[in-house]
Design a protein that fits this description.
This protein is mostly beta strands. It has one domain: glutathione-dependent formaldehyde- activating enzyme (gfa) (Alpha-Beta Complex), CATH 3.90.1590.10. 9% of the residues lie in helices and 39% in strands. The strands form 2 sheets. An 8-stranded mixed sheet has the order 6-7-8-9-4-3-10-11. The chain is globular and about 35 Å long. The relative contact order is 0.24.
Length: 140
């Protein structure tokens, strides 16, 4: 991995982070809970090593139950409400964490190659040919 880093943060700027770049992977999730939490048809997340993320500011945590039945910790800015990180027990065990793609200062640099919970995706949403498309969750 290179020494390059990208930065990001919440809408109000109270939470900021830098992360090693490139990220391990970019993934979208179309599960109903991610749709509700993001306010969008899907959530874009970047996967990074926990040790590769440097965070300043305080986050509040909401513990959600995913369609898989697993606990999902959704970390957000308590001031502006921006979702910043997503975490799970499996991700913690694997030494990774998920960054909400829209919080990157240069979000255009994050291109997803895998899409999970597509069985909940809006009918009009199409995924690029060649990408990994999973009806449900696989892995983390």
């Amino acid at each position: 991995m290179s020494d390059a880093r990208h930065e990001g943060g919440c809408l109000c700027g109270a939470v900021r982070y830098s992360v090693a770049w490139p990220l391990m992977q970019a993934v979208t999730c179309s599960c109903v809970n991610c749709q509700k939490q993001s306010g969008a048809p899907l959530s874009l997340v970047g996967v990074t090593g926990r040790d590769d993320l440097h965070l300043t500011g305080e986050l509040k945590t909401y513990v959600d139950t995913a369609q898989s039945g697993n606990a999902v910790r959704r970390l957000f800015c308590p001031t502006c409400g921006s979702p910043v990180l997503t975490d799970t027990d499996a991700a913690e065990d694997a030494g990774i964490i998920f960054i909400k793609g829209g919080t990157l200062d240069d979000a255009a640099a994050l291109t997803p190659s895998a899409h999970c919970w597509t069985r909940s995706a809006h009918e009009w949403l199409q995924f690029p040919e060649g990408d990994t498309v999973m009806q449900m969750q696989e892995g983390l």
